[in-house]
Amino acid sequence: MLRMENVSKIYRTELVETHALRKVDLHIKSGEFVSVTGPSGSGKTTFLNLAGALETFEEGDYFLDGQNVKGLSDDKLSEIRNQKIGFIFQSFNLLPDLPLFDNVDVPLRYRGMSAKERKERIEHALETVGLASRMQHLPTQLSGGQQQRVAIARAIAGDPLFLLADEPTGNLDSLMAQQVMELLEDINSKGTTIIMVTHDDQLARRAHRNIQIFDGQVSDIEKSVADDVIRSA
Amino acid sequence: MDIKPIFLGLKQNKFMAMLMIIQIAFTMGVLSSSVLVATTTLQEWNVPSGIPHNDIVRISPEFFDDNQDVGQAMFNDLKRVKDIPAVINAAPSNAVPFTAENMIDVYLATEEDAQGFKTVVFESDEQIIDVLQLSLIDGRLITASDVVKGEIDSTPQSASEVMISQDMAKVLFGDDSAIGKTIWLAKSADPVKVIGVYSNFMTGERLNGRGKSYHSIIRPQVKWSLNQQPHYLMRVEPGTAVALLEDIIDVFYLERGRYINSSELLKRTQKRMYDGRGSRALTFLVLSLVLLIITGLGITGLTAFQVTQKRKQIGTRRALGAKKSDIMRYFLTENSVLTLIGLVIGVAVTLSITFELSEQAGQNFFNLGVLLMTALLLWVVNILAVWFPAKRAANIAPAIVTRGA
């Protein structure tokens, strides 16, 4: 479903070249729940940006659902983000001016769906995250955990190829973090692939598989091994 | 791009939206009113003068010596200028075409609520009709015996008969003949009788500005004092006016104790009038342009401020699948919604301003075409004003969403 082959990302300034990711080879299968961990500055965010088609890269190939993302136009990348990826951000990134219903509606509108289909999907997504009764509320009227659930609803409403979660519980207290994690696990159990970037070892351990990034290099560890590695870290 | 999210966004940013709407409405109101007034002013640019202004010279002498006899000097002046071979005719007058500003109200009755009709009265002798080459439309011309002459203090009586212009007659009496009708040159004044109607000629800007360029009355009387000395209008052989002007001035300097305050061809007087009009229209248009630029910059500033404030939101939209064109469209549509509301209010303001101006000036300034063109211009300026900050917004990288908390 997601395959990276020799992907490198280099940030260049006039004076310095920074190798943010070095020759990443990675294959994530449909239905997996993958955690991505690594210390600050290791390249997690760069990995997230490339996996989410938020940034372009110069070396290697990145296949999403069989399609090579490399070299695609900005518009095409927008389409891929819109149709194949569901984003969940650490700071939720809800649009403060729009009620929940319309927040969830944002990516669906860009997809050009009919109003009827959008409405059905939005209602279903908000039901899934337990916020159907608060559709007309503004994000500021919700707690952090609720806001993140809206962001999850927004991510799953479009029925994407995978969810890309960037520290989804980073801004939440432990109880809310627990609820959000359970929600993600529930969504994953119904077949949705999830890639979760986190620095929280406990959360990472709940994934099927852990990918560690150190100094721009990826080590891909199956869950059985991952637990040991994380425990000993 | 559906309109609903834009309205929802505006609902949450009422202050900003109101600010833009007010700015657009104000600009539309002032801009279109100015353009309407300027257009109307310029439209009347080439109204015929009704007189051979290329061949008429005006001289306005003024005594500084209090011991001089103005009446005798006038008699001498007229005799001397008429002796110049190329001068065909001359007449004294209290007013000069193109500069006649002593506007009054003329009445058909003296009741308190009687309606006044704006006009200018030319006090002159029987030669004025020939000097200005006016044609008789109805009734009879004034004759030498109709003319009341004398020093103001010693001549209490005034001419009781007048001639009026064709347009004046139409306004006062419609299709009826004006001849024999009575009018009042002031509510408290004695009535005067209309004895003749002459062809139209242009009076001055105060009446031009009211769309009443040709409303005038000729009263056969020449009254003078040291404080109220007549102007002289002289018609000369066609094409000789420029060459003759110095000779004519010399003649007027033969009289002692005075100087020539003004001496020119009426062609020049007319040009001055048009220059003034052009300056007025230009002032309106320049002010409008400045206002337009200020509004454009204001909109650019407000939009740029919004873009800066909403960087993360714009990045989020891009991450969620918005193309650059979607972001551009969002800002342009949002601006168009505000512009439309502002324009509707602005048109209402314009209508009330032009209605008030038209009422005051007695002239219709409204012009739907000009109003629509102004609205279109303002729309285009706003689109341009938003274009650049919107372009900047569209270039915000979607990866901004993963930077910082």
In brief, what are we looking at here?
With 233 residues, chain A is α/β, with parallel strands linked by helices. Chain A contains 8 helices and 10 strands.
Structure description:
The complex is a heterodimer of chains A (233) and B (405). Chain A is α/β, with parallel strands linked by helices and 233 residues long. Chain A contains eight helices and ten strands. In chain A, strands 6-7-8-3-9-10 form a six-stranded mixed β-sheet, with helices on both faces. In chain A, strands 2-1-4-5 form a four-stranded antiparallel β-sheet, with helices on one face. In chain A, strand 1 and strand 2 form a beta hairpin. In chain A, helix 3 crosses helix 4. The longest helix of chain A has 16 residues, at 174-189. Chain A starts with a strand and ends with a helix. The model of chain A has no long low-confidence stretch (mean pLDDT 90). Chain B is α+β, with helices and mostly antiparallel strands and 405 residues long. Chain B has two domains: 4-45 and 275-403, no CATH class; 65-256, no CATH class. In chain B, 49% of the residues lie in helices and 19% in strands. Chain B is built from eleven helices and twelve strands. The interface between A and B is medium-sized, with 35 and 28 residues.
